[in-house]
Amino acid sequence: MRLKSLRSIAGALALCALAAPLAAETIEELDALSDRTQDEALGIQLAQEHASRGEFLDALAALERVLAEHPKSHPARLLHAVYLCKVDDKLGAAVEFDKLKRKKYSDAQWADAMAQCGFQQGDAR
Q: Taking the model in full, what pTM does it have?
């Protein structure tokens, strides 16, 4: 019975180790991240860096921090919609596109964003 309990505990510990993040974030790293996303341009740049590595959830988190500080950031809002598509949240992206003011973006920006999501020009609006 005791051996069975030890195996259960060992299995649980192994699962915890797998669930732990691969890169630990220190308080200093979290502070630097917070500081960087306080600035609209730097926060968007951080999100784009994450996205370039395929880290779309981190990119979305960075954009959400930017939008918390700069709720009217049109570039951040458009990127947020596109990155929702990248994590296969087409419905969330469609909702975000519906909230965007089309006139704030060039035809090329809008068409590119729609194409990245696989939407036709009239789909999300």
A: 0.72
